[in-house]
Amino acid sequence: MAVLISIGGGKGGSGKSFLALNLGVALAERGREVILLDADLGGANLHTLLGIPFPSVTLEDFLNGFLPLAETAMETSVRGLKLISGTLARLSAKLKYDQKRRLFRNLRGLQADYIIVDLGAGIGPSTLDLFILADRGLLLLTPESTAVENAYRFLRGVYFRCLRSVATERRIRRAVEEVIEGLDPGSTPWDLLKKIEDMDGNTASKFRGVMHSLRPYLVLNQLRTRDERALGFSVKTVCKKYFGIDLSYIGYVPFDPKVSFAVARGRPFLWEYPDTETSRCIREIADRMTTDREVTLP
Fold first, then answer.
1. How confident is the prediction for the chain on average, in pLDDT?
2. Could you tell me which of 291, 292, 216, 225 has the C-alpha nearest to residue 252?
3. Phi-psi region of 225 (alpha: psi -120 to 50; beta: other; left: phi over 0)
4. CA distance 269 to 89
5. Alpha helix (H) ranges present in the chain?
6. Residue among 135, 226, 158 nearest 10 (CA)
7. Which residues touch 266 (CB under 8 Å, ≥6 apart)?
8. How many CB atoms lie within 10 A of CB 238?
9. Whole-angstrom Cα distance, residue 233 to residue 237?
10. Which residues neighbour 33 within 8 Å (Cβ) at sequence distance 6 or greater?
11. Is 90 exceeded by the pLDDT of residue 293?
12. SS3 category, 155
């Protein structure tokens, strides 16, 4: 069965599509069969990065019932790498319930070693659910205060989405909603879990199990100084303390002005500039993904 990896972060422009494509290329170079899924509803651009001006089939053909999901996967110029292009028409970021269920069920049926999902910006329900569904979600952020804030909001959304899924009792759901809606502004996610533990230990235990299974990856992008690498360790520590989430910090990618050149040519960066530090870092991230290793302290 394919390993499903969803790349999110809440903020547009952080480089999710760039990383999704080049991680896919790095894995394909290792002989893995990879499918890229552009899950940005209405803002798809992975096909452009691969030099495909107008895809003949897209995810929309599956969502509207015209084609099986497997038949929307197009061959690309990269051997071993297929693409399911995102919708080109502007659709609601909130998939219909039956569409979402069909998509999730069929994703698991795709024949590949890895399926990499490029999530859209924001914290819409479908985006959060695809992150949670994955075997490993990958949180991508840049070293800017706004990006870190958006990453926090994204993880907060994941946290509460998971909690809602196990909170079946009305009093517990009400306590969750009060925190989400800001009616209990002094309560942190960790405080809320302690409160729920007092109300119903069984629900709290289920939630801890769901959160433990998440184990998201963390990658930093567009680093301009070597000191910025330490941000990954800080984010990892804060997330454990505040959410109880164990992030695996698996790498960083330096800022490189040549990225825009590769995008303009419609070719993967790893092909255009294979011997750069950026390409080396991406290949190291792919290697850590396959071996489940983290960045070590310098």
1. 89
2. 225
3. beta
4. 27
5. 16-29, 46-49, 59-63, 97-107, 125-133, 145-166, 170-180, 189-199, 201-214, 231-242, 259-265, 269-272, 277-291
6. 158
7. 48, 49, 50, 51, 52
8. 15
9. 6
10. 80, 111, 112, 113, 114
11. yes
12. helix
Task: Check: CB of residue 166 under 8 Å from CB of residue 160.
Answer: no
Q: Which of 48-52, 112-116, 195-199, 244-248 has the lowest mean pLDDT?
A: 195-199
Distance (Å, rounded) from C-alpha 242 to C-alpha 233? 14
Residues 6 or more apart whose CB falls under 8 angstroms from that of 199 comprise 169, 171, 172, 175
Domains and CATH numbers, the chain: 3-143+216-291 (3.40.50.300)
Q: Which two tokens stand for residue 249?
A: 């910090």
Taking the C-alpha atoms of residue 96 and residue 217, their distance in angstroms, rounded to an integer, is: 28
3-state SS of 58-105 is CHHHHHCCCCCHHHHCEECCCCCEEEECCCCCCCCCCCCHHHHHHHHH
Cβ-Cβ contacts under 8 Å for 18 (sequence gap 6 or more): 49, 221, 259, 263, 269
Over residues 184-209, the pLDDT tens digits come to 555 677 777 887 888 888 888 888 88
Which of these, 99, 102, 132, lies nearest to 117 by C-alpha position?
A: 132
Q: First-to-last CA distance in the chain?
A: 36
d(CA 174, CA 166): 13
Radius of gyration of the chain, Cα coordinates, nearest whole angstrom: 19
Beta bridge partners of 116: 5, 36
Backbone angles phi, psi at 123, to 5 degrees: -130, 45
Q: What is the pLDDT of residues 54-111, one digit of tens each?
A: 899 999 999 989 999 999 999 999 999 999 998 766 555 567 888 889 999 999 999 9
Q: Looking at residue 187, what is its pLDDT? A: 63
Residue with tokens 């002005």: 257
Return the residue matching tokens 């075997």.
135
